[in-house]
Design a protein that fits this description.
By secondary structure, this protein is of the alpha/beta class. It is 31% helix and 23% strand. A 6-stranded mixed β-sheet has the order 1-5-6-4-2-3.
Length: 177
């Protein structure tokens, strides 16, 4: 699912009361660590509304859409190359990380949990580990509880909104062109 072997990946327990604040802080850190100048921040929300376990990205996109502003947009395509692209997707992982949110710099490979070979996407990634990996990944995604996806999407959306409010409050941040 992840690329760059040396990239730092941060894990946040979605059940933690401070999950959104932790995500906001780490998201701001990842933006600063990326270090590139950008005109806009793009969230590419990956997934399907037809498979519960794969609906995390579209649900977050739905939750973020009403808050689109001059600094961030929610897209489903890669139309603008001058954006800092944040890829958001559901993922499968170890039992000990089930229910955790991951964030880090670099791209993700969407569809890896379902055995698909798709190109890497993103400058920063946010994933929600919605179930355990192993056999029958497609079935695991189809039978993941909607409550799990919904609560995780809430934590991620709130963390993103907190970080974006901080970016907007900074006004002419050196990261923006």
């Amino acid at each position: 699912m992840f690329r760059k072997k040396d990239a730092e990946v941060y894990y946040i327990n979605e059940r933690s009361r401070s999950a959104s604040e932790e995500l906001a802080s780490l998201f701001s850190y990842c933006i600063q660590k990326d270090g590139r100048m950008f005109r806009e921040l793009v969230f590419l929300c990956i997934g399907s509304d037809r498979i519960t376990g794969d609906s995390l990205g579209p649900l977050i996109g739905y939750q973020l859409s009403p808050y689109c502003s001059r600094i961030f947009h929610v897209y489903g395509t890669l139309d603008d190359p001058e954006a800092l692209l944040v890829a958001i997707d559901a993922s499968l992982g170890s039992r000990r990380h089930q229910g955790y949110i991951t964030i880090g710099n670099g791209a993700i490979r969407p569809g890896a949990g379902a055995g698909k070979t798709l190109p890497e996407v993103g400058d920063i990634f946010i994933t929600g580990i919605v179930n355990v990996s192993g056999s029958f990944e497609q079935l695991l995604l189809q039978t993941t509880r909607l409550a799990t996806i919904f609560h995780m999407a809430e934590s991620i959306s709130q963390g993103i909104l907190l970080a974006c409010r901080e970016l907007e409050a900074a006004g002419t941040s050196e990261l923006l062109l």
